[in-house]
Amino acid sequence: MKFFSLVLLVAVGIAFSGLGSEALTPDQIIKILMGGAPPYWKVCFALDSSGSINRTEWKQSKFAARDILAIINFTPRRNSIAPWRHRIGLVRFSSTNPTKVIFSMGTYPFYPANDAAIAAVPKVGHLTNMNKALALCERQLGLNGRRLVWMTTDGYYNEGGDPRPRATAMKRTGTVICVVAIGTNPNMAVINAIASWITSFDFDKCVKCVLTYDTYEAYWSATYAAKLRVVVPEAQPALT
Fold first, then answer.
1. CA-CA distances (angstroms) from residue 79 to 65, 85, 164?
2. Helix (H) or strand (E) run with residue 213 in it
3. Which residues does the UniProt record annotate as the domain VWFA (predicted)?
4. Contact assessment for residue 178 and residue 46, using Cβ atoms and an 8 Å cutoff
5. Are 61 and 50 within 8 A, CB to CB?
6. Domains present along the chain, CATH in parentheses
7. Whole-number Cα distances in Å, 29 to 3, 75, 123, 207, 216
8. What share of the chain is helix, strand, coil (3-state, %, to 5)?
9. 146-153 and 205-208 as β-strands: parallel, antiparallel, unpaired?
10. Helix 55-73 to helix 26-34 angle, to the nearest 10 degrees?
11. Distance of CA 137 to the CA centre of its chain
12. C-alpha distances out from residue 72 to 80, 192, 232, Å
């Protein structure tokens, strides 16, 4: 199948003129990564809940994560989240102490329970420890199988040290890191250093796995539209 042509370019310093800022849609990224035949993926969401994010934005961030979850559940086919298929975990990050694993990889075996668990994550935070967030994701994902971190951030950190060396090490062991950059002035130097390169001949693109949005509302709008393109109407969950 064409998706076996997927190449993940993780080496530091590779430059593709004009391609680094070109973004695919959320559903295209999931299709590139997961649209082929098994094996399935381990996915760790890393959701920023630091002090710069208000309560409304936090709700929008969770709605967007739930949309991504729904797309994953339908990729490569319906009910792809299961103990023997895709497995899900979630890390909430902000200050060092509130940065924690909210639910471990595979805690909830099927889609509905994972969806409810994301909806229930409380917002706690002040500073931003991206490095610890990646470390916790790394532990959850392990070193085997297909592994994805789906991180939301503005790229700024003020606790825990520079996350870029850890991200580089994770990518060298095969972990794919996709970053949703939120804000009108995100730290793209950090974001682009953290994110993986992905390419697929199906879309004839080689890009950083980075999606950029000015607001969480815009991010949620994009994921909701992406979900409608993938998930059949009768399977769409009600927003709660």
1. 17, 9, 34
2. strand 210-213
3. 42-196
4. no
5. no
6. 26-230 (3.40.50.410)
7. 12, 11, 27, 10, 19
8. 35, 20, 40
9. unpaired
10. 40
11. 11
12. 7, 23, 13
Q: How many CB atoms lie within 10 A of CB 143?
A: 10
Supply 58's token pair.
């936090």
Sign of dihedral through CA atoms 99, 132, 157, 198?
negative
Q: Token digits for 223?
A: 């994921």
Segment 168-223, tens digit of pLDDT: 999 999 999 999 999 999 999 999 999 999 987 666 778 899 999 999 999 999 99
Taking Cα atoms as reference points, which of 77, 45, 34, 26 lies closest to residue 221? 26
Instruction: Report whether 195 contacts 212 (CB < 8 A).
Output: no
* Backbone phi, psi, residue 225, to 5°: -60, -40
Distance between CA atoms of residues 110 and 107, nearest Å: 9
pLDDT for the residue numbered 1: 36
Rounded-to-integer distance, Cα 220 and Cα 52, Å: 18
Place of tokens 């042509």: 5
Dihedrals φ, ψ of 71, to 5°? Answer: -65, -45
Expressed in angstroms, the distance from the first to the final Cα of the chain is 38
pLDDT in tens, 28-42: 999 999 998 788 999
Q: What is the pTM of this model?
A: 0.88
What amino acid occupies position 222?
A: A
Give the whole-angstrom CA distance, residue 1 versus residue 20.
26
Is-contact 197 206, C-beta < 8 A? Answer: yes
